[in-house]
């Protein structure tokens, strides 16, 4: 059984007990989060695709950690102008473990 969920503008294919990194959610460590935007569900009974979401389908997950990804550096440079700029960015994320998929 798997499901395709949408959160943070991205879609994720998840199985039960999967650990995924999603865009930062407004939840603390140890909280349970319910994803209502389930785009598709595959069960023993068959495959259901939503238009745009599957009715009454939910994916429950537990928040393991809130954190930041490693720093990504951007360097802007213009030749012959003595112009350089170094900028860093760390994207926040939430690490979640999928507990159950209800179709």
Describe the structure.
It is a single chain. This protein has 103 residues and is mostly beta strands. It is 0% helix and 65% strand. The protein contains no helices and ten strands. The strands form three sheets. It has a four-stranded antiparallel sheet with strand order 2-1-5-6, with no helix packed on it.
What would a concise description of this structure say?
0% of the residues lie in helices and 65% in strands. The model has no long low-confidence stretch (mean pLDDT 96). It has no helices and 10 strands.
The H/E string reads EEEEEEEEEE
Which structural class best describes the helix and strand composition? mainly beta
Estimated helix fraction = under 10%
Unreliably modeled segments: none
Oligomer: single chain
Report how far apart the termini are: 10 Å
Strand content: over 45%
Count all strands and give the number.
10
Largest sheet: 4 strands, antiparallel
């Amino acid at each position: 059984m798997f499901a395709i969920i949408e959160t943070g503008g991205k879609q994720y294919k998840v199985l039960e007990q999967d650990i995924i990194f999603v865009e930062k959610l407004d939840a603390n460590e140890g909280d349970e989060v319910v994803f209502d935007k389930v785009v598709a569900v595959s069960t023993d009974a068959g495959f259901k695709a939503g238009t745009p979401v599957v009715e009454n389908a939910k994916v429950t997950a537990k928040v393991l950690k809130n954190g930041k990804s490693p720093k990504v550096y951007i360097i802007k440079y213009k030749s012959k102008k003595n112009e350089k700029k170094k900028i860093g960015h760390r994207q926040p994320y939430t690490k979640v473990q999928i507990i159950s998929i209800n179709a």
